Amino acid sequence: DMMCLDAKSVTERACRSCGGTGIETFLEFGKTPLADRLLTSSDIGEPEPIFPLRVAFCKDCSLVQITETVNPIILFADSYPYYSSFSPALLKHSRANALDLINRRGLGPESLVIELASNDGYLLKNYVEAGIRVLGIDPADGPAAAAERVGVPTRCAFFTRDVAETLRAQGMRADIIHANNVLAHVADTNGFVAGIARLLKDDGVAVIEAPYVEPLIEHCEFDTIYHEHLCYFSVTALDKLFRRHGLYLNEVKHLSIHGGSLRLYVESRENVGATVKDQLAHEASRGIDAIGYFRDFSSKVDALKRDLSTLLRRLKSQGATIAAYGAAAKGATLINTVGIGRDLVDFVVDRNVYKHNKYMPGQRLPIRSTEALLEVQPDYVLLLAWNFVDEILDQQAEYRARGGKFILPVPTPRII
Ligand code: DWN
Ligand code: ZN
């Protein structure tokens, strides 16, 4: 399972979590480019690396996963363009979580909060403001430097079991370990969880957020599948993963963020509450713990891709102009699997200044600032960042008042 450092990718033959070899593919996208590898104008002449994107189910532990592991240094270390702080809704969501934990856990100046994949400090800055000690760990140098600038001490590194041992040897044990949208990203799933177990105080809690596989399937959010996302979790699969490392999933909450996520409360003491028991029962009754649940997903994805392509081509043939909103990673999957090129969409807008004047992977749509929508006033805007629909529609009230319309790609393509 160890990644050879100079290999660009490896194809896994066994489950990332339990090591079982009974993994069955249920969705196949062929080879696609890397979703966050935005191109500069000098990259445009060069061929782009593409990697197999294939989703499988483990019959032994129920984990949904992709089978290709792209070298994490290629994915995250170098010019990673995702900065959490560009979404006000995410900032609000994160602040509420921090304040709730400070309150419920009675945190103070003696406490220590560690965040794995702390990005630009969007979450930890709330603890700093409250006078609580923090440490951020993130491998992406741009976001890590941005975190330092807002007063969040950050180590620019991948979190591993070894890093956990080193920090522990330096006397660090955490009251809270946050890990938001990172568990699915790590190639050594078990090492990462073992590291959490080592770094948590005996009475500490790991508060982990991850997209939930049920809404992914139910709402056809297939665009959230790309090489950064190695795992697509159910509570059934998570419960087994944590137990293997002497950790217990004791409480779970449902969040609307990122198309439907779970917030997991994980501790070293077993105290499984009703929220987890109910969710395990729900998954068993819906069959989410078995391959049958996933078998017809591929044909649903095909239908959505066809419907969206048909809609865009019809609008275009009627003479409409179309732009897109959100140079999101999920947008890269959407445009590259549906085949949405410059013939259909003129440009993509995004609030993230680090993405401006770059190009989307594969289809190479140019990325501009959001002001371009009012300057150009395209007839339609395909909402690639559909997970922030309410927030973005509010921001674009003027574009809509002037007659502009949005196209939502999921769960079924529609104009709003
Ligand atoms: O797991 C991951 C998630 C959490 O974030 C990563 N692997 C990468 C990233 O995925 P994504 O790029 O699909 O995430 P977002 O947050 O859905 O991307 C939204 C994009 O839209 C960003 O580029 C920011 C942009 N945006 C904007 O321009 N205006 C977002 C909002 C809310 C806005 O108002
Ligand atoms: Zn497994």
Molecular shape: globular
Widest sheet: strand order? 8-7-6-9-10-13-12
Integer-rounded radius of gyration: 21 Å
CATH superfamily of the largest domain: Vaccinia Virus protein VP39
* Number of helical segments with 4 or more residues: 14
Bound compounds, each kind once, are: ligand DWN, zinc ion
**Which percent range fits the helix content?**
25-40%
What is the CATH third-level topology name of the largest domain? Rossmann fold
Q: How does the helix and strand content classify structurally?
A: alpha/beta
Q: Could you say what the CATH architecture of the largest domain is? A: 3-Layer(aba) Sandwich
Unreliable sequence segments:
none
